[in-house]
Specification:
Elements: H1 10-25, H2 29-40, E1 43-49, E2 52-57, H3 58-61, H4 68-72, H5 84-95, H6 103-115, E3 129-132
Parallel strand pairs: 1-3
Antiparallel strand pairs: 1-2
Helix pairs in contact: 1-2
Length: about 130
């Protein structure tokens, strides 16, 4: 089985962001997947979409040409394990900086979740971090 490849550049990142945007705006199981993924996220890449912040979890962004089915697969023999620390390191390399906590971005995240009917399921004391690309 072919190993999943990590992203290598910003084009890979933006491709995955567009995939998640499509999922979130669909009327299918893709939307359910996107909402759960966003609601469970801890580290996010923040971009602009239609004049508002868009939040994409790093665990989804970190693998080339990621999809719902690829992300959902559990680690199988020969597969890379999904781990936020691995994808975060790759994003740090690509952007040249790491994610940082931000009260204002956390408030925007909560508003984003409210607009898209995303249930936030991360632990209460979990401190979200952001790569702000806006």
């Amino acid at each position: 089985m072919k190993k999943r490849e990590f992203i290598t550049d910003k084009d890979d990142v933006y491709e995955n962001i567009e995939t998640l945007k499509c999922y979130l705006s669909s009327d299918s199981e893709d939307q359910v997947f996107a909402k759960k993924l966003i609601g469970r996220g801890i580290c996010f890449v923040v971009t602009e979409a239609d004049g508002c912040a868009f939040f994409t979890p790093s665990r989804f962004l970190g693998y080339k040409c990621n999809t719902r089915s690829m992300h959902a697969r559990h680690a199988e023999p020969g597969e890379l394990r999904r781990h936020g620390g691995d994808t975060n390191r790759r994003l740090n390399e690509i952007f040249g900086f790491g994610p940082a906590p931000s009260e204002s971005l956390d408030c925007e995240y909560k508003s984003f979740c409210g607009r898209h009917e995303v249930e936030i399921t991360t632990a209460f004391r979990c401190r979200r971090k952001f790569w702000n690309l806006r």
